[in-house]
Amino acid sequence: MSYENRRPDVAVFIDFENVYVSVRDKLNANPNFEAIMDRCSDLGRVVISRAYADWYRYPRVTSALYANA
Length: 69
Prior knowledge:
Strand content: 15-25%
Number of strands: 2
Distance between the termini: 26 Å
Order of helices and strands: EHHEH
Number of domains: 1
Helix content: 40-55%
Largest sheet: 2 strands, parallel
Radius of gyration: 14 Å
Number of helices: 3
Structural class: alpha+beta
Shape: elongated
């Protein structure tokens, strides 16, 4: 594949606590990380994705994040 036709590389860094609290408070729902990652992949090839939080406060969501890493 030529350089001109290559999709750009995308790095995704998520402030999980802010996303989670904002979606919960504004939409009364849980964030859909599969949809977030799908949208990111629309922008290019996701080469790294990281979510940051105090994970001891959110033990139930870690498996969903691992599934969409």
